What we know:
- The chain is of the alpha+beta class.
- Among the domains are: about 10-135 and about 870-890, no CATH class; about 375-765, no CATH class.
- Helix content is about 65%, strand content about 15%.
- The protein has helices at about 10-20, 25-35, 280-360, 365-470, 475-495, 505-570, 570-575, 580-665, 670-775, 785-870, 895-920, and strands at about 40, 55-70, 75-95, 105, 115, 115-135, 140-150, 155, 165-175, 180-185, 190-200, 205-210, 215-220, 225, 235-240, 250-260, 265-270, 880-890.
- The strands form three sheets. Strands 1, 2, 3, 4, 5, 6, 12, 14, 15, 17 and 18 form an eleven-stranded mixed beta sheet that branches. Strands 8-7-9-16-13 form a five-stranded antiparallel beta sheet, with no helix packed on it. Strands 10-11 form a two-stranded antiparallel ribbon.
- Helix 4 packs parallel to helix 8 (about 580-665).
- The protein is elongated.
Amino acid sequence: xxxxxxxxxxxxxxxxxxxxxxxxxxxxxxxxxxxxxxxxxxxxxxxxxxxxxxxxxxxxxxxxxxxxxxxxxxxxxxxxxxxxxxxxxxxxxxxxxxxxxxxxxxxxxxxxxxxxxxxxxxxxxxxxxxxxxxxxxxxxxxxxxxxxxxxxxxxxxxxxxxxxxxxxxxxxxxxxxxxxxxxxxxxxxxxxxxxxxxxxxxxxxxxxxxxxxxxxxxxxxxxxxxxxxxxxxxxxxxxxxxxxxxxxxxxxxxxxxxxxxxxxxxxxxxxxxxxxxxxxxxxxxxxxxxxxxxxxxxxxxxxxxxxxxxxxxxxxxxxxxxxxxxxxxxxxxxxxxxxxxxxxxxxxxxxxxxxxxxxxxxxxxxxxxxxxxxxxxxxxxxxxxxxxxxxxxxxxxxxxxxxxxxxxxxxxxxxxxxxxxxxxxxxxxxxxxxxxxxxxxxxxxxxxxxxxxxxxxxxxxxxxxxxxxxxxxxxxxxxxxxxxxxxxxxxxxxxxxxxxxxxxxxxxxxxxxxxxxxxxxxxxxxxxxxxxxxxxxxxxxxxxxxxxxxxxxxxxxxxxxxxxxxxxxxxxxxxxxxxxxxxxxxxxxxxxxxxxxxxxxxxxxxxxxxxxxxxxxxxxxxxxxxxxxxxxxxxxxxxxxxxxxxxxxxxxxxxxxxxxxxxxxxxxxxxxxxxxxxxxxxxxxxxxxxxxxxxxxxxxxxxxxxxxxxxxxxxxxxxxxxxxxxxxxxxxxxxxxxxxxxxxxxxxxxxxxxxxxxxxxxxxxxxxxxxxxxxxxxxxxxxxxxxxxxxxxxxxxxxxxxxxxxxxxxxxxxxxxxxxxxxxxxxxxxxxxxxxxxxxxxxxxxxxxxxxxxxxxxxxxxxxxxxxxxxxxxxxxxxxxxxxxxxxxxxxxxxxxxxxxxxxxxxxxxxxxxxxxxxxxxxx
Length: 924
């Protein structure tokens, strides 16, 4: 490859040595860069002398390397740029860079720069990397501070050198990129609201330090702790610095017992991340969006209930006015009966008695027989009239019951069955998705187990081969095999590679550790989200149940009112008055309509409460335990991967020792034998580490299998429930249709019975006229006495009935007065339920919609900033841009002061040497 950076084949060895300078930065950021947005970054336009040929993919990685002291105070900042060119062909591009202190890390050539942009022209065959470094003076996205407390007293880092005691170290990392932005989101009432909110660039990070063996009893609530294979403890923290999923500030730390201590360095790697693209955070964003929609739906539903409550209040007010009028009319009726009708009936009875006494001497047997026959006919027809009246009343009650109670109830049952069927279908779909994800996890863990077993087998073969090599005898044969062994060791070292090389052993292990760390973090957030949801759902269900209880209480009061009105309608004093019956009937109809509306609202809330109860049960018994089991399995796999990495690093170190031994072997074959034995020991350690990896992945594979089996059982159960709910919905629909048909038939039956009653009534009228004619015919022959007796008896009964009516009218007046006094309570109760219940529910829905709407708007704005501001300087046009920040917090080991003194002495010597050289050139 030839470029403007003068990268030629004879310089590649130098470039390899320079590349080691950036290995720390690239190794540290490699796991986190997997989370970064990797969409092509539109950089500055390029104007080249010729066109690009072939196909070359360009990836630009920008890493800001920050060196700070042990308290977090920044000492230096450097920007490392790497252009990775992959493919075949000619490429010409412009890369925005920081020109201050710009240096080439791939050779001794300079960097071609035009207008603040690196100019690259290259012939690419395969893969080439171009690296530069410059001085970075820009702002940092994170502010870091560290405090040290030894035996309860805050101390400086230097005080820890040689100290002994109980040490607490606290790291505070703050995302300082926030800027005020105007965000617009739904207000829960069909409109929008605009609010100024501080929006930061979303960042995630990982802080790691390795404590030496002088730190014992290391404890931390937020850290992942693991051994480093040398007696020390590796402490790592994961930070989510992206509100509202996390906080803009992370405070983490550890506590340990320090003995003759020194402070190790700490490293923090962070990068911007798009929360709407990374699955770990996208689920939280979806939850916020769903919460806003649910709040709006809650506010809308509560508004509907409140509107119906206000209608109930207005209907109760109308009922109150009607009761007042009815009470006044009943008072007038009572006064008329007691003051006029009752005294007049007494006078009528006395006159009828006198008439009967005057006609007693004119009785005639024939007239008596005619009168008796007419009376029997009238009595029979009267009984028929009474029977048909009862039949009419029964048919009307049957029709009323079918239409007002059975039919609405069956329809509510059908609606509820359909809602249940819909909810179970959604649950069935979610269970299917869970089963699919669990199956994929099981397949991935199985593949990882197979790979780890192959690694173990390969290392076993390597150790066996080294054992054979250690038994080689004969200096002549050993000398001939030295050259072959040297080539094998070089290939082995290349296979080990480094954590920044993904195709090597150490690179693959680094990617595995990073992926498991991300998976562990995601599993923890999943468990936390499910537990938070499990805590919030009972509260929501309790609120729904409280509102339903208020509606049921109102329905009970309305039912009592209906019962009172029905009893008034059957009272003898009101039953004979058409106006009274009509008024009471209308009031009862209005009350029943109100009761029906309350019942519908209560049934809807009951369905909501039932659905919330089902969700709470599923969370507690299935989802949360499954997520916790998954988290435990991932944690075990992560620990196994860490042990494998440590073993691989030890094996690489042993191989490097063998490489050095082979160099010395040219002067002494005895040294070669010792090097081979050291290599054999390193291979045994690697074999042991690979076995640990296989065991950890086997545990992960078993946990994934359990999760897949549980998800399958959940999917099967929800499928059975869905089938049952479908049959229930079909049966409820058939029941509603049958009741509707029965109601229509009962109405026809009532009409026919009414016609029969009319015919019997006409016959009764005819018999009455016949009886009257017989009385008139027998008047001349002495039957007037019987007629006068009947008149006297009827007058007495009339007097008695009017007396009872007068008494009943008084009770009716008193009862209506009590009803008029109680009706305002129904009005006040409906208003109170609106003010204290549904109105507050509306406000709660609006607050929920606004709160979750704001949270999602902040995430959207953060996503825009992450995509628009992710690069430190910028990337070439049509390339993939990645950026990260790597902080190194220097440790304290007591050598800092000596280094400064030695450095000063070295500068003095360098100055003296320069003076001597100048004097020699001057000939002095």
